[in-house]
Design a protein that fits this description.
Blueprint: H1 21-29, H2 38-54, E1 82-83, E2 88-90, E3 96-98, E4 101-102, H3 114-123, E5 130-133, H4 135-139, H5 152-172, E6 178-181, H6 184-191, H7 196-209, H8 214-217, E7 220-224, H9 240-247, E8 254-257, H10 265-275, E9 281-287, H11 297-308, E10 316-320, H12 335-359
Parallel strand pairs: 5-6, 6-7, 7-8, 8-9, 9-10
Antiparallel strand pairs: 1-4, 2-3
This protein binds zinc ion.
Residues 14, 183, 223, 225, 228, 322-323 line the site of zinc ion.
């Protein structure tokens, strides 16, 4: 008789790791695509992957070292048919970030995220996941007044095609998962409490997800969070009960849900229990990137055990609440702190596995 299968709780990061300060300073002096910066990007990626693997994380990312200027606009940065001054995101500490806006059609990505995978997989010894931006976030680039000779409908069709191409390229290259960043989901409820904006985002993202087979969707996930920039959030005051019922309508196999930094985790978990579909896996956030205190493995273990009261263990995973610097110039969290939190996530998830496995 073989040994009984060991219980494993999958654990994955969200994506970004703070860039080395030297790299941030070099980019600030010039053009993010200056070929002279290539060796510095390469060093940052190699160092990030080495340190990521040293944490024991069974799945890693490239830390988004090359995603300029952020998790949302990396694919359109530098397009000639865009201009600054698009959609504005307001954070709780009073600072704002702005997307770019489309000035003419047609809409095409300038780069697909699989270009980052190419580099990361050259260095990585363990599986690499890749985050991509959601169609709903990029839909905010189309201005409220229409673009001449390029209707909103044409834009949406082009956007869905580009997003679909990006995911397919990442899947084909062997991404462990492709995670669609959907931070604007919770923000949508804040902007429009009626829920219309959120539901339009869900519909749009489902049009994109429908283009994939059920098997492909098991490798596709969606990330939700209240935002994380300069240790500040944009929508933490929105009750998860306003978001999660719609979120779980998304045709994705995996959900990466910020939870460690929530004021009332059990309330969020009750909502997850009520609305999660039977085949959907939930990776709960067990570390809070915006909190300067480093979680202990025991704290993480307790958060996993708490979540296991609401989510069947075979559909539970753990993650960080968010990336550690979704905007590339954010130095509010150090690389050392980010990796220490990731190590705590990995160790704490193991402790929970042993605890639950021992109790089976
Ligand atoms: Zn996030």
């Amino acid at each position: 008789m073989g040994k009984p299968a060991r219980l494993t709780i999958p654990t994955e990061p969200i994506g970004s790791i703070p860039r080395p300060v030297d790299l941030i300073e070099r980019i600030a002096k010039g053009d993010s695509e200056d070929p002279n910066l290539a060796p510095f990007y390469e060093d940052a990626i190699r160092d990030t992957i080495e340190r990521f693997e040293a944490t024991g994380s069974p799945v890693i990312t490239d830390g988004e070292q090359r995603k300029y200027h952020n998790f949302a606009t990396y694919c359109v940065h530098g397009l000639p048919n865009t201009a600054p001054g698009g959609f504005k995101i307001s954070f709780s500490d009073g600072h704002t970030r702005r997307l770019s806006r489309l000035t003419s059609g047609p809409f095409r990505y300038r780069r697909y995220a699989d270009c980052y995978l190419d580099v990361a997989m050259r260095y990585a010894l363990v599986p690499v996941k890749q985050a991509v931006i959601s169609p709903s976030a990029l839909s905010l680039m189309y201005p409220s007044e229409s673009v001449p000779d390029y209707s909103r409908e044409q834009f949406i069709e082009d956007l869905l095609n580009e997003h679909g191409t990006e995911i397919r390229r990442c899947l084909k290259k062997g991404a462990h998962k492709v995670q669609v960043d959907f931070t604007e989901g919770r923000l949508a409820v804040k902007i429009d409490p009626s829920g219309h904006l959120l539901n339009s985002f869900i519909d749009l993202n489902n049009l994109a997800l429908s283009r994939f087979s059920p098997e492909e969707r098991r490798r596709i996930g969606v990330h939700t969070c209240p935002g994380n920039d300069l240790d500040s959030t944009h929508s933490a005051d929105v009750d998860y009960a306003e978001l999660l019922p719609s979120l779980f309508e998304l045709k994705a196999g995996n959900f990466y849900i910020a939870l460690a930094g929530e004021r009332d985790r059990r309330h969020a978990l009750q909502t997850i229990r009520k609305y999660r579909k039977p085949d959907q896996r939930v990776f709960v956030g067990v570390t809070a990137p915006a909190d300067p205190d480093i979680e202990t493995p025991e704290e993480v273990r307790d958060r996993v055990l708490e979540a296991s009261e609401y989510i069947p263990i075979e559909h539970l995973g753990t993650t960080d609440d968010c990336g550690f610097s979704p905007f590339s110039d954010d130095t509010s969290t150090s690389r050392d702190t980010a990796f220490a939190k990731i190590r705590a996530r990995v160790l704490g998830t193991k402790l929970a596995e042993n605890h639950i496995g021992g109790a089976l």
